[in-house]
């Protein structure tokens, strides 16, 4: 089974990422890995920290001569900011005299709930791990999952569909999303320049007023055959696994599959994706590997029915609340005196929708890769590919 975990504090020495369950022989491209990390650092509205960090993954194990060897892959990502925190957050000296307290909890962040739970006198150690700095390690893990999926022709990308009150008022085709993701400069990762300019206006407004803003990203999985995931057990359904994976990202407060939200207020006749059948035995142009004669004209289901992929693009949206650290802080209470004060502010992002989209790509890729490995098995990439090709042929001949 494909598994991954992360460790590391936001201002600690490094993040650690561990992925196990990848078959042997998956090509690992360091440039692609670091590009994924770079993409997560982009986006209009990020704060001062992103000018300090330049994320790169250092592979410690599980990869030899550019390919996985079937063993767990361990990676570290250095925190450049550590040099500014080394004295404040010593790992094992026991010297807490330089501790820098986060003295009043920020509404919306983990500060208060975490301090109460772990019995800390302030929120420093809570925010250190609650911070979305951790999502960089997830992106490193997800990059490996993407490399595996890429070997099977399964691609994962994302784009921004809403910032605050401004939205992309139309659907985006996979080719547009892929082109937006391939750009050398990622502004808001919206596929439409006009909509992106409106979204930028929303970020500017929040910046000017000392406020923050949320939005919606969309992750798309392209090229996944029907039949991955299952309806037979609740905890093996693709929809449930994707929802948990994306919801687990910092600040994501709702997850939508396909048009799940508007479907709730619409009639079945307009929601469900009518099925048609393409006649004839002609070989499809792409070599036939993923051809199915059953087709849909629209994809409101977001590529999943009954917890199983149906062969259409898998479409997952994540809804982000506005960032909780405000330059004009909300009311809070001092941990020490219990008197009314303002919530803590050091520095902060104002808008992170594009970055969260990239982190969600990683979570979706890891989830899909897990289900693909579960279904097709194989200790080597060659074995996995043979099994995969055999299944795709079965689908083609159905
Ligand atoms: C990429 C990214 C960057 C973030 N940056 C900040 C930030 O600069 N300041 C902040 O208060 N929250 C930031 N957040 C959100 C917090 O990490 C998150 O709200 C907090 O951990 C509490 O978790 P919850 O919102 O999921 O309940 C960021 C989230 C993401 C995905
Ligand atoms: C470091 C990252 O995001 C951080 C996530 C974050 C939070 O509270 O989630 C708070 C900020 O950290 P700092 O207080 O050091 O500026 C962000 O910069 C990152 O995305 O790599």
From TrEMBL:
<feature type="binding site">
    <location>
        <position position="40"/>
    </location>
    <ligand>
        <name>NADP(+)</name>
    </ligand>
</feature>
<keyword id="KW-0288">FMN</keyword>
<keyword id="KW-0057">Aromatic amino acid biosynthesis</keyword>
<dbReference type="GO" id="GO:0010181">
    <property type="term" value="F:FMN binding"/>
</dbReference>
<keyword id="KW-0285">Flavoprotein</keyword>
<dbReference type="GO" id="GO:0005829">
    <property type="term" value="C:cytosol"/>
</dbReference>
<comment type="subunit">
    <text>Homotetramer.</text>
</comment>
<feature type="binding site">
    <location>
        <position position="306"/>
    </location>
    <ligand>
        <name>FMN</name>
    </ligand>
</feature>
<dbReference type="GO" id="GO:0004107">
    <property type="term" value="F:chorismate synthase activity"/>
</dbReference>
<keyword id="KW-0028">Amino-acid biosynthesis</keyword>
<feature type="binding site">
    <location>
        <position position="347"/>
    </location>
    <ligand>
        <name>FMN</name>
    </ligand>
</feature>
<feature type="binding site">
    <location>
        <position position="46"/>
    </location>
    <ligand>
        <name>NADP(+)</name>
    </ligand>
</feature>
<keyword id="KW-0521">NADP</keyword>
<feature type="binding site">
    <location>
        <begin position="250"/>
        <end position="251"/>
    </location>
    <ligand>
        <name>FMN</name>
    </ligand>
</feature>
<dbReference type="Pfam" id="PF01264">
    <property type="entry name" value="Chorismate_synt"/>
</dbReference>
<feature type="binding site">
    <location>
        <begin position="129"/>
        <end position="131"/>
    </location>
    <ligand>
        <name>FMN</name>
    </ligand>
</feature>
<feature type="binding site">
    <location>
        <begin position="321"/>
        <end position="325"/>
    </location>
    <ligand>
        <name>FMN</name>
    </ligand>
</feature>
<dbReference type="GO" id="GO:0009073">
    <property type="term" value="P:aromatic amino acid family biosynthetic process"/>
</dbReference>
<keyword id="KW-0456">Lyase</keyword>
<dbReference type="InterPro" id="IPR035904">
    <property type="entry name" value="Chorismate_synth_AroC_sf"/>
</dbReference>
<dbReference type="InterPro" id="IPR000453">
    <property type="entry name" value="Chorismate_synth"/>
</dbReference>
<dbReference type="GO" id="GO:0008652">
    <property type="term" value="P:amino acid biosynthetic process"/>
</dbReference>
<comment type="function">
    <text>This reaction introduces a second double bond into the aromatic ring system.</text>
</comment>
<dbReference type="InterPro" id="IPR020541">
    <property type="entry name" value="Chorismate_synthase_CS"/>
</dbReference>
<comment type="similarity">
    <text>Belongs to the chorismate synthase family.</text>
</comment>
<keyword id="KW-0274">FAD</keyword>
<comment type="pathway">
    <text>Metabolic intermediate biosynthesis; chorismate biosynthesis; chorismate from D-erythrose 4-phosphate and phosphoenolpyruvate: step 7/7.</text>
</comment>
<dbReference type="GO" id="GO:0009423">
    <property type="term" value="P:chorismate biosynthetic process"/>
</dbReference>
<protein>
    <recommendedName>
        <fullName>Chorismate synthase</fullName>
        <ecNumber>4.2.3.5</ecNumber>
    </recommendedName>
</protein>
């Amino acid at each position: 089974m494909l598994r991954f975990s992360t460790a590391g504090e936001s201002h600690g020495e490094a993040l650690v990422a561990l992925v196990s369950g990848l078959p042997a022989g998956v090509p690992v491209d360091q440039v692609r890995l670091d590009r994924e990390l770079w993409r997560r650092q982009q986006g209009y509205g990020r704060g001062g920290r992103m000018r300090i960090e330049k994320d790169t993954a250092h592979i410690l194990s599980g990869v030899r001569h550019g390919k996985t060897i079937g063993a767990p892959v361990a990676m570290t990502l250095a925190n450049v900011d550590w040099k500014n925190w080394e004295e404040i957050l010593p790992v094992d000296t026991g010297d807490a005299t330089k501790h820098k307290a986060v003295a009043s909890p920020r509404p919306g962040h983990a500060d208060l709930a975490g301090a109460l739970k772990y019995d800390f006198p302030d929120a420093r150690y809570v925010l250190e791990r609650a911070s979305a700095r951790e999502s960089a390690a997830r992106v490193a893990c997800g990059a490996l999952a993407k490399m595996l999926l890429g070997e099977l022709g399964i691609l994962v990308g994302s784009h921004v569909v809403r910032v605050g009150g401004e939205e992309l008022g139309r659907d985006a085709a996979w080719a547009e999303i892929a082109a937006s993701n391939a750009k050398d400069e990622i502004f808001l990762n919206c596929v439409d320049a006009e909509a992106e300019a409106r979204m930028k206006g929303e970020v500017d407004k929040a910046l000017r007023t000392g406020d923050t803003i949320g939005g919606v990203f969309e992750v798309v999985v392209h090229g996944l055959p029907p039949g991955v995931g299952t309806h037979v057990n609740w905890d093996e359904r693709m929809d449930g696994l994707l929802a948990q994976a994306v919801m687990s990202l910092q600040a994501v407060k709702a997850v939508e599959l396909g048009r799940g939200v508007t479907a709730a207020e619409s009639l079945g006749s307009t929601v469900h994706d009518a099925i048609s059948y393409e006649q004839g035995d002609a070989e499809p142009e792409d070599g036939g590997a993923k051809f199915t004669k059953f087709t849909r004209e629209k994809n409101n289901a977001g590529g999943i029915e009954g917890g199983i992929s149906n062969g259409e693009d898998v479409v997952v949206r994540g809804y982000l609340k506005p960032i909780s650290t405000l330059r004009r802080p909300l009311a809070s209470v001092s941990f020490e005196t219990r008197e009314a004060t303002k919530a803590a502010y050091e520095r902060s992002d104002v808008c992170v929708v594009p970055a969260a989209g990239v982190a969600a790509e990683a979570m979706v890729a890891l989830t899909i890769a897990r289900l693909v490995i579960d279904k097709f098995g194989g200790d080597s990439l060659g074995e996995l590919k043979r099994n995969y090709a055999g299944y795709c042929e079965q689908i083609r001949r159905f």
